[in-house]
Amino acid sequence: MSKIKTIGVFTSGGDAPGMNACLRAAVRGALKENIEVYGIEHGYQGMIEGKMHKMTWKSVSGIIQQGGTILKTARSERFRTKEGRAIAYSQLGHYGIDALVAIGGDGTFKGALEFSSEFDVPIIGCPGTIDNDIYGTDFTIGYDTAINTAMQAIDKIKDTANAHDRLFFIEVMGRDAGFIALRSGIATGAEAVLIPETSTDVNRLIAKLERLYQVKQRSCIVVVAEGDDTGGAFEIAKQVGNRFDKYDIRISILGHIQRGGSPTCMDRVLASRLGLEAVHGLLKGKRGVMVGKICHKIIYTPLEKAVKHHNEVNPVLVDMIDILS
Ligand code: F6P
Q1: What domain range includes position 56?
Q2: Ligand 1 pocket member 131 (CB < 6 A)
């Protein structure tokens, strides 16, 4: 029998649609096992400041469809210090919290690794980030919602690009990963998708745009991952515009719209499954791991592996861009 009696749950790093669904499942899964749950506000910063409150079944009512996180999130410089982590540990002791569920991205898991190496705190991570850049899961919580948001935004931009015969460079999030760009680009029939995982050949891009112009394609969409090696949409638009002036060029940075919105069904179900399995994993004695879903199976990956490796983009999807548009 696990000696865990009280669990702390928190959301950390960039928020992602589905974090509330994950939190809801972790809270209700724990309560179902007669485990007490504290919600820790503002991530590691709130842990240091002792901003925690007991969660009940009702605490997480009506949130599964809400974007963002009712516990708020933050990035904590203080938690990067041993002194800050020691204060956080003493706060957990004060509330009688003997294990943690951390919902966040790789920065969250790096902090969890450091923390659990210094203090005896079982931690299980749930991959909550729109970037989908966490090793150990097919999809991260928030990714499906973000690519649908990006797709709908790009579709709208495509309407006005067509109306004005314009070439649009549209920048999407993803930090140093291209997963959002790749799928939203394919789904919107973008003529090119620039991602950090493949080196961008500006000459090749211009040659493609020239070919399209020759065959009377009067408007084009280029989706640019913010981490692309060209430096992002403004930079690549300038390079192209200086050498190829047939198109009237415009730029659109989608920005934080990709972080909000009501989570999709896929994200709600994934988040609920991972939140539950994080609690079950703690009660089975697992610690220092991230719970993920790979080929429909629940997999627990050591945190050091989850943060060290990067998910690979699917080369078949990369090739599809040139074949299909
Ligand atoms: O990691 C999620 C993410 O949205 C990245 O895609 C993006 O680069 C970053 O967070 C933005 O961070 P902030 O919200 O702090 O500006």
Answers
A1: 6-142+263-308
A2: yes
